[in-house]
Protein backbone atom coordinates (compact mmCIF):
# COMPACT_ATOMS: atom_id res chain seq x y z
CA UNK A 1 0.00 0.00 0.00
CA UNK A 2 1.49 3.33 -1.07
CA UNK A 3 1.04 6.14 1.46
CA UNK A 4 0.28 8.92 -1.03
CA UNK A 5 -1.41 6.93 -3.80
CA UNK A 6 -3.94 9.05 -5.70
CA UNK A 7 -2.62 12.33 -4.31
CA UNK A 8 -1.03 15.18 -6.22
CA UNK A 9 1.85 17.33 -4.97
CA UNK A 10 3.56 20.52 -6.05
CA UNK A 11 7.18 20.82 -4.89
CA UNK A 12 9.17 24.03 -5.45
CA UNK A 13 12.92 24.03 -5.85
CA UNK A 14 12.51 20.50 -7.13
CA UNK A 15 15.21 20.29 -9.80
CA UNK A 16 17.97 19.48 -7.29
CA UNK A 17 18.88 19.13 -3.63
CA UNK A 18 16.27 18.73 -0.93
CA UNK A 19 13.33 19.62 -3.18
CA UNK A 20 14.31 16.93 -5.68
CA UNK A 21 14.78 14.36 -2.91
CA UNK A 22 11.36 15.13 -1.39
CA UNK A 23 9.75 14.86 -4.83
CA UNK A 24 11.41 11.46 -5.35
CA UNK A 25 10.18 10.27 -1.96
CA UNK A 26 6.59 11.35 -2.64
CA UNK A 27 6.67 9.73 -6.08
CA UNK A 28 7.98 6.46 -4.61
CA UNK A 29 4.95 6.46 -2.30
CA UNK A 30 2.45 6.79 -5.14
CA UNK A 31 2.05 10.56 -5.41
CA UNK A 32 1.80 12.39 -8.73
CA UNK A 33 4.30 15.24 -8.52
CA UNK A 34 4.63 18.58 -10.26
CA UNK A 35 8.23 19.79 -10.13
CA UNK A 36 8.71 23.56 -10.05
CA UNK A 37 12.08 25.25 -10.58
CA UNK A 38 13.85 27.72 -12.89
CA UNK A 39 16.17 25.32 -14.73
CA UNK A 40 14.13 23.48 -17.36
CA UNK A 41 16.96 21.12 -18.32
CA UNK A 42 17.41 19.91 -14.75
CA UNK A 43 13.65 19.64 -14.34
CA UNK A 44 13.39 17.39 -17.39
CA UNK A 45 16.16 15.13 -16.11
CA UNK A 46 14.56 14.95 -12.68
CA UNK A 47 11.05 14.18 -13.89
CA UNK A 48 12.35 11.36 -16.09
CA UNK A 49 13.93 9.75 -13.03
CA UNK A 50 10.82 9.86 -10.83
CA UNK A 51 9.30 6.44 -10.14
CA UNK A 52 5.83 5.43 -11.32
CA UNK A 53 4.51 2.85 -8.87
CA UNK A 54 0.72 3.08 -9.22
CA UNK A 55 -1.70 3.15 -12.14
CA UNK A 56 -2.75 6.64 -13.11
CA UNK A 57 0.30 8.22 -11.48
CA UNK A 58 1.85 10.99 -13.59
CA UNK A 59 4.58 13.59 -13.12
CA UNK A 60 5.09 16.96 -14.79
CA UNK A 61 7.36 19.98 -14.74
CA UNK A 62 6.68 23.68 -14.35
CA UNK A 63 9.62 25.84 -15.41
CA UNK A 64 9.10 28.97 -13.33
CA UNK A 65 11.06 31.73 -11.58
CA UNK A 66 9.29 32.32 -8.29
CA UNK A 67 10.82 35.78 -7.98
CA UNK A 68 8.63 36.83 -10.89
CA UNK A 69 5.44 36.54 -8.83
CA UNK A 70 6.44 39.61 -6.81
CA UNK A 71 7.18 41.58 -9.99
CA UNK A 72 4.30 44.00 -10.51
CA UNK A 73 4.60 43.87 -14.29
CA UNK A 74 4.30 40.11 -14.63
CA UNK A 75 2.62 38.79 -11.49
CA UNK A 76 -0.92 38.56 -12.91
CA UNK A 77 -0.07 36.14 -15.70
CA UNK A 78 2.34 34.23 -13.50
CA UNK A 79 -0.20 33.89 -10.72
CA UNK A 80 -2.64 32.45 -13.25
CA UNK A 81 -0.03 29.85 -14.29
CA UNK A 82 0.60 28.91 -10.68
CA UNK A 83 -3.09 28.76 -9.81
CA UNK A 84 -3.66 26.36 -12.71
CA UNK A 85 -0.81 24.14 -11.56
CA UNK A 86 -2.32 23.95 -8.07
CA UNK A 87 -5.60 22.48 -9.32
CA UNK A 88 -6.17 19.16 -7.54
CA UNK A 89 -3.05 19.50 -5.40
CA UNK A 90 -3.34 18.15 -1.84
CA UNK A 91 0.36 18.52 -0.94
CA UNK A 92 2.31 21.77 -1.35
CA UNK A 93 6.00 21.77 -0.41
CA UNK A 94 7.59 25.22 -0.34
CA UNK A 95 11.25 24.25 -0.65
CA UNK A 96 12.80 26.76 -3.06
CA UNK A 97 15.24 29.03 -1.30
CA UNK A 98 18.51 30.91 -1.38
CA UNK A 99 21.04 31.63 1.35
CA UNK A 100 23.23 34.63 2.13
CA UNK A 101 26.87 34.45 3.18
CA UNK A 102 27.81 38.10 3.63
CA UNK A 103 27.90 40.29 6.71
CA UNK A 104 25.02 42.75 6.66
CA UNK A 105 27.02 45.91 5.74
CA UNK A 106 28.40 44.10 2.67
CA UNK A 107 25.05 42.74 1.52
CA UNK A 108 23.58 44.51 -1.51
CA UNK A 109 19.98 45.68 -1.24
CA UNK A 110 18.89 43.67 -4.27
CA UNK A 111 20.36 40.52 -2.72
CA UNK A 112 18.51 41.25 0.52
CA UNK A 113 15.21 41.68 -1.32
CA UNK A 114 15.63 38.59 -3.49
CA UNK A 115 16.42 36.49 -0.40
CA UNK A 116 13.33 37.74 1.43
CA UNK A 117 11.14 37.40 -1.66
CA UNK A 118 12.16 33.86 -2.56
CA UNK A 119 12.37 32.46 0.99
CA UNK A 120 9.31 34.16 2.49
CA UNK A 121 7.13 36.12 0.06
CA UNK A 122 6.94 33.38 -2.59
CA UNK A 123 5.73 30.71 -0.12
CA UNK A 124 3.12 33.16 1.16
CA UNK A 125 1.83 33.88 -2.35
CA UNK A 126 1.83 30.19 -3.29
CA UNK A 127 -0.10 29.36 -0.13
CA UNK A 128 -2.56 32.15 -0.92
CA UNK A 129 -3.12 30.69 -4.39
CA UNK A 130 -3.55 27.22 -2.88
CA UNK A 131 -5.88 28.44 -0.11
CA UNK A 132 -9.29 28.03 -1.76
CA UNK A 133 -8.37 24.98 -3.91
CA UNK A 134 -7.07 23.15 -0.84
CA UNK A 135 -10.19 23.98 1.17
CA UNK A 136 -12.28 22.59 -1.69
CA UNK A 137 -10.07 19.51 -1.76
CA UNK A 138 -10.50 19.16 2.00
CA UNK A 139 -14.29 19.21 1.70
CA UNK A 140 -14.14 16.68 -1.14
CA UNK A 141 -11.90 14.30 0.82
CA UNK A 142 -14.04 14.60 3.95
CA UNK A 143 -17.20 13.92 1.95
CA UNK A 144 -15.65 10.73 0.57
CA UNK A 145 -14.39 9.55 3.95
CA UNK A 146 -15.02 10.01 7.65
CA UNK A 147 -13.59 12.25 10.36
CA UNK A 148 -11.47 9.33 11.57
CA UNK A 149 -10.06 8.44 8.15
CA UNK A 150 -9.90 12.01 6.83
CA UNK A 151 -6.44 12.84 5.44
CA UNK A 152 -6.30 16.61 5.15
CA UNK A 153 -4.39 18.51 2.47
CA UNK A 154 -1.07 19.81 3.75
CA UNK A 155 1.40 22.64 3.21
CA UNK A 156 4.98 22.00 4.28
CA UNK A 157 7.30 25.00 4.51
CA UNK A 158 11.02 24.27 4.52
CA UNK A 159 12.70 26.61 6.99
CA UNK A 160 16.10 26.20 8.70
CA UNK A 161 17.68 25.63 12.10
CA UNK A 162 19.07 29.14 11.68
CA UNK A 163 15.55 30.55 11.92
CA UNK A 164 14.62 30.19 15.58
CA UNK A 165 17.02 28.09 17.59
CA UNK A 166 20.27 28.57 19.48
CA UNK A 167 22.11 28.20 16.15
CA UNK A 168 23.55 31.43 14.75
CA UNK A 169 26.16 31.99 12.05
CA UNK A 170 27.64 35.36 10.98
CA UNK A 171 26.71 36.28 7.43
CA UNK A 172 23.28 34.64 7.51
CA UNK A 173 21.22 37.35 9.21
CA UNK A 174 18.86 38.06 6.28
CA UNK A 175 18.53 34.36 5.47
CA UNK A 176 17.72 33.62 9.15
CA UNK A 177 15.17 36.44 9.21
CA UNK A 178 13.41 35.13 6.10
CA UNK A 179 13.25 31.60 7.51
CA UNK A 180 12.07 32.86 10.91
CA UNK A 181 9.27 34.75 9.17
CA UNK A 182 8.24 31.48 7.57
CA UNK A 183 7.66 30.01 11.05
CA UNK A 184 5.30 32.80 12.07
CA UNK A 185 3.44 32.42 8.79
CA UNK A 186 3.19 28.65 9.30
CA UNK A 187 1.62 28.75 12.74
CA UNK A 188 -0.75 31.61 11.90
CA UNK A 189 -1.94 30.04 8.66
CA UNK A 190 -2.47 26.72 10.41
CA UNK A 191 -4.79 28.46 12.88
CA UNK A 192 -6.62 30.10 9.97
CA UNK A 193 -7.37 26.77 8.33
CA UNK A 194 -8.66 25.27 11.57
CA UNK A 195 -7.45 21.77 10.74
CA UNK A 196 -9.06 21.49 7.31
CA UNK A 197 -5.65 22.07 5.75
CA UNK A 198 -2.58 21.27 7.81
CA UNK A 199 0.41 23.66 7.74
CA UNK A 200 3.81 22.75 9.20
CA UNK A 201 7.43 23.84 8.95
CA UNK A 202 10.54 21.68 8.83
CA UNK A 203 13.81 23.15 10.10
CA UNK A 204 16.72 21.13 8.67
CA UNK A 205 20.31 21.49 9.77
CA UNK A 206 23.14 21.70 7.26
CA UNK A 207 22.79 19.03 4.55
CA UNK A 208 26.22 18.40 2.96
CA UNK A 209 24.74 16.35 0.08
CA UNK A 210 22.95 19.41 -1.29
CA UNK A 211 24.54 22.17 -3.35
CA UNK A 212 23.74 24.74 -0.68
CA UNK A 213 25.21 22.58 2.06
CA UNK A 214 28.33 21.50 0.16
CA UNK A 215 29.16 25.10 -0.71
CA UNK A 216 28.88 26.20 2.91
CA UNK A 217 31.72 26.72 5.34
CA UNK A 218 29.55 26.64 8.44
CA UNK A 219 29.50 22.92 9.18
CA UNK A 220 31.66 23.51 12.28
CA UNK A 221 28.97 25.77 13.74
CA UNK A 222 25.93 23.70 12.73
CA UNK A 223 27.07 20.12 12.37
CA UNK A 224 25.51 18.08 9.58
CA UNK A 225 22.38 16.03 8.97
CA UNK A 226 21.89 13.46 6.21
CA UNK A 227 19.62 14.19 3.29
CA UNK A 228 17.78 10.91 3.82
CA UNK A 229 16.96 11.83 7.42
CA UNK A 230 15.47 15.18 6.40
CA UNK A 231 13.48 13.60 3.56
CA UNK A 232 12.09 10.91 5.86
CA UNK A 233 11.05 13.58 8.37
CA UNK A 234 9.35 15.58 5.61
CA UNK A 235 7.44 12.47 4.50
CA UNK A 236 6.40 11.76 8.09
CA UNK A 237 5.08 15.30 8.58
CA UNK A 238 3.17 15.23 5.28
CA UNK A 239 1.63 11.84 6.00
CA UNK A 240 0.77 12.22 9.69
CA UNK A 241 -2.65 13.80 10.11
CA UNK A 242 -1.93 14.59 13.76
CA UNK A 243 0.96 16.94 12.96
CA UNK A 244 -0.41 20.44 12.42
CA UNK A 245 0.83 23.95 13.18
CA UNK A 246 4.20 22.63 14.25
CA UNK A 247 7.77 23.71 13.57
CA UNK A 248 10.01 20.67 13.69
CA UNK A 249 13.80 20.64 13.81
CA UNK A 250 15.70 17.92 12.00
CA UNK A 251 19.42 18.17 12.72
CA UNK A 252 22.39 16.12 13.89
CA UNK A 253 21.24 16.38 17.52
CA UNK A 254 17.89 14.69 16.75
CA UNK A 255 16.09 17.51 18.57
CA UNK A 256 12.57 18.60 17.81
CA UNK A 257 10.86 21.87 18.66
CA UNK A 258 7.10 21.87 18.58
CA UNK A 259 4.86 24.91 18.82
Description:
By secondary structure, this protein is of the alpha/beta class. It has a single domain, classed as 3-Layer(aba) Sandwich (Rossmann fold). The chain has eight helices and seven strands, in the order E-H-E-H-E-H-E-H-E-H-E-H-H-H-E. A seven-stranded parallel beta sheet has the order 3-2-1-4-5-6-7, sandwiched between helices. The mean pLDDT is about 90.
Features:
about 260 residues; seven-stranded parallel beta sheet; 8 helices
Summarize the structure.
The protein has 259 residues and is α/β, with parallel strands linked by helices. 43% of the residues lie in helices and 14% in strands.
- The rounded distance between the terminal residues' Cα atoms is 32 Å
Oligomer: single chain
Rg over CA atoms: 17 Å
CATH architecture: 3-Layer(aba) Sandwich
CATH superfamily: NAD(P)-binding Rossmann-like Domain
Low-confidence blocks of residues: none
**Strands side by side in the biggest sheet:** 3-2-1-4-5-6-7
Mean pLDDT: 89
How many domains in all? 1
What global shape is seen? globular
The percentage helix is 40-55%
Number of helices: 8
Biggest sheet, in brief? 7 strands, parallel
Please provide the ordered H/E string of secondary-structure elements.
EHEHEHEHEHEHHHE
Helix/strand structural class: alpha/beta
Query: How much strand content do the residues show?
Result: 5-15%
CATH topology label: Rossmann fold
Number of strands: 7
Q: What is the CATH domain class?
A: Alpha Beta
